[in-house]
Automatic annotation (TrEMBL):
Residues 195-229 are annotated as: Disordered. Coiled coil: none annotated. This is Tetratricopeptide repeat protein. TPR repeats lie at residues 81-114. SUPFAM superfamilies: TPR-like. InterPro entries: TPR-like_helical_dom_sf, TPR_rpt. PROSITE patterns: TPR. Keywords: TPR repeat.
Amino acid sequence: MGRSGAEDIDRLRRDIDRALADKLDADRVLPLLARLARATSPGSEPWLYAHRHLAEMGVEHDPWRAALFARRVLQFHEEDDGAWAVLGLAQSLLGNYRYAARAYERALAIVPENPWYAHNLGHLYDVALNRPHDALPLLAQATEAQTGEADIAASYAHALARCGKLVLAKKILKRAIRHGATADQMALWRWLDAGAPTTGESGPDPQRPADSKRKAKRRRARERQSLGD
């Protein structure tokens, strides 16, 4: 790569860093990232940087494309937990729940202490894959690590109730929503208060699919923040 090319890449990288720091909208940052990806060699540090952010920033808009970007990162850096997590989130949004769970399992194996990976995997086990008993230790871990997160506590309460631990489920949820609750969390409370009746369904999902993109965006940022990225 010539000197002018390297300087252009450095300048583009600075522009992207500034745009991310200023929290510009994705539609203003994604074209810059695409330019950086095209201008750099596959597997190089700036190429990986561009593809990571293309996956992370684009997942709620185009999860299929975000999954492609994440897989490209993993071809060169198989231990990139963030790429595995974005792949898991993208596959969740696409409805490929077993694939999503495998991706989150890989992310959590790399960073076992990450509560957001534990929560997302536990929630998949409980609601999408009908494995509430497998979900419990993951959701307990996430709840203990993020005591102020009502979303996480609601997922834990849901799985507890499905495992027959209704009293503890109500205690966990009541404590989490004492300062206010979303409509989904109130629906979950009413279900618990009615004895968590089974009707062939798993019960009310504390994070309905209609909310998944909003929650996904917030949770993705927290996943990265918890790693100091």
